């Protein structure tokens, strides 16, 4: 499925025409990821707040599912791409072909990391990302982890489950 269609699906739910000022800052590049974001937005107030925070930031998040994850152990990660035209760009990579519940959890987890970056204008590259990680989390030059991202992923899944959307039912939700 093309990027334009996936973004169009999201915009159709917003009910307003696409302009530079309201283009989504979270841009899924697959229909499965777009459907997951729409489900999470409808079923999790916590996730909706993440999206709202990113939408008001200078951070653009490209969400990409790919066959190979970030490495052999990590199934999802966030990569800082740089800045251009007044925006900072990051790419969230998520290993494809995982169970839907894992996709939901990883999207929430990585978008929490994106919110942390959005809140720190000094983060513009890998070096400044590592510096931020040393302040708010733990990890290495390749991997950063935060308690907030771990907590958010659990909270979002709990909200989705409490809404009655099991992973099997969520997959069919439109």
Can you put this structure into words, describing what you see?
- By secondary structure, this protein is of the alpha/beta class.
- It has a single domain, classed as Collagenase (Catalytic Domain) (3-Layer(aba) Sandwich).
- Helix content is 51%, strand content 19%.
- It is built from seven helices and six strands; from the N terminus they run H-E-H-H-E-E-E-H-H-E-E-H-H.
- Strands 1-2-4-3 form a four-stranded mixed β-sheet.
- A hairpin with a 2-residue loop joins strand 3 and strand 4 (87-95).
- Helix 1 packs parallel to helix 2 (31-43) and helix 2 (31-43) crosses helix 3.
- It starts with a helix and ends with a helix.
Instruction: Note the beta-strand portion.
Output: 15-25%
Main beta-sheet strand count, sense and barrel state: 4 strands, mixed
- How big is the Rg? 15 Å
Strand order of the largest sheet: 1-2-4-3
Kindly state the percentage of residues in helix: 40-55%
Per CATH, the architecture is 3-Layer(aba) Sandwich
CATH class: Alpha Beta
Low-confidence stretches: 1-6, 9-13, 169-174
What name is given to the CATH topology? Answer: Collagenase (Catalytic Domain)
Categorize the overall geometry: globular
- The ordered H/E elements are HEHHEEEHHEEHH
State the end-to-end CA separation: 16 Å
Q: Counting H and I runs of at least 4 residues, what is the number of helices?
A: 7
Number of domains: 1
């Amino acid at each position: 499925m093309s990027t334009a269609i996936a973004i169009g699906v999201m915009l159709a739910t917003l009910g307003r025409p696409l302009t530079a000022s309201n283009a989504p800052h979270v841009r899924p590049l697959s229909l499965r990821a777009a459907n997951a974001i729409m489900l999470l937005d409808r079923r999790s107030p916590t996730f909706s707040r993440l999206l709202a925070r990113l939408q008001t930031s200078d951070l653009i998040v490209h969400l990409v599912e790919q066959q190979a994850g970030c490495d052999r152990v990590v199934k999802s990660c966030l990569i800082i791409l740089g800045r251009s035209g007044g925006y900072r760009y990051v790419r969230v990579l998520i290993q494809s072909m995982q169970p839907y519940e894992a996709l939901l959890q990883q999207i929430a987890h990585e978008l929490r990391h994106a919110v942390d970056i959005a809140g720190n204008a000094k983060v513009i590259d890998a070096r400044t990302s590592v510096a931020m990680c040393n302040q708010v989390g733990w990890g290495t030059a390749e991997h950063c982890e935060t308690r907030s991202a771990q907590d958010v992923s659990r909270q979002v899944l709990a909200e989705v489950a409490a809404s009655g959307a099991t992973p099997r039912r969520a997959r069919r939700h439109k």
